[in-house]
Design brief:
It is found in: Cytoplasm. The chain is α/β, with parallel strands linked by helices. The protein is built from four helices and nine strands, in the order E-H-E-H-E-E-E-H-E-E-E-E-H. The structure holds 1-O-pyrophosphono-5-O-phosphono-alpha-D-ribofuranose (PRP), hypoxanthine and magnesium ion. The site of 1-O-pyrophosphono-5-O-phosphono-alpha-D-ribofuranose has 17 residues, from strand 2, strand 5 and helix 3.
């Protein structure tokens, strides 16, 4: 285990097993259709890359990059689009793919933005959900794991852009970020 971590919260094997289940569930739910997965950069890139390999129906990719900014480190809920989708999504079955839903502010904004573009359907798939921290009410359709209110890194999740490459989810030591 990396020395900056308190513990491994979800092992590589547990992550992979759960992503396989999510991919199979999505393939079953959308059988006979094709889907567009929208990855939210940068955190969701690792999850999306693994998830799509467990999806057996036709799947297209697009990506968005957003930045939330506010006073200090707390998200203000004001979200700015840094990179928008390459193409319109009207009439398509869209799944937003996130690594984590924390306050829900980012996702709340994204759902509103994409819903206004008239997709045939819009769902949300996240690897991690921290329900205790929720500020904005958002509906999550596919969730890998509920996790406690601890700062986690790995498998796409960063602290100051570090640790995204870990194949597992770990709890970062407080001393690293205080
Ligand atoms: O529910 P919220 O409180 O809005 O937090 C969740 C968002 O924060 C993280 O992104 P971040 O802004 O750190 O960008 P990154 O993916 O590039 O790390 C994460 O990937 C989600 O998009
Ligand atoms: O626990 C977290 N870790 C990394 N990035 C995050 N963004 C929201 N919550 C987290
Ligand atoms: Mg981040």
């Amino acid at each position: 285990m990396h020395p900056d971590l308190d513990k491994v919260l979800i092992t590589e094997q547990e992550v992979q097993k759960r992503i396989r289940e999510l991919g199979e569930q999505i393939s079953c739910d959308y059988a006979g259709k094709e889907i567009l997965v929208v990855g939210i950069l940068k955190g969701a890139a690792v999850f999306l890359a693994d998830l799509v390999r467990y999806i057996s129906i036709p799947v297209y990719f697009d990506f968005m990059a957003v930045s939330s900014y506010g006073a200090g480190s707390a998200s203000s809920g004001v979200v700015r689009i840094l990179k928008d989708l390459d193409r319109p999504i009207e009439g398509r079955h869209v799944i937003i793919v996130e690594d984590i839903v924390d306050t829900g502010l980012t996702l709340n904004y994204l759902v509103q933005s994409l819903q206004s573009r008239n997709p045939a359907s819009l769902k949300v798939c996240t690897l991690l959900d921290k329900p205790e921290r929720r500020v904005a009410k958002v509906k999550v359709d596919y969730n890998g794991f509920d996790i406690p209110d601890q700062f986690v890194v790995g498998y796409g999740l960063d602290y100051n852009e570090r640790y995204r490459n870990f194949p597992y989810i770990g709890v970062l030591k407080r001393s690293v970020y205080t």
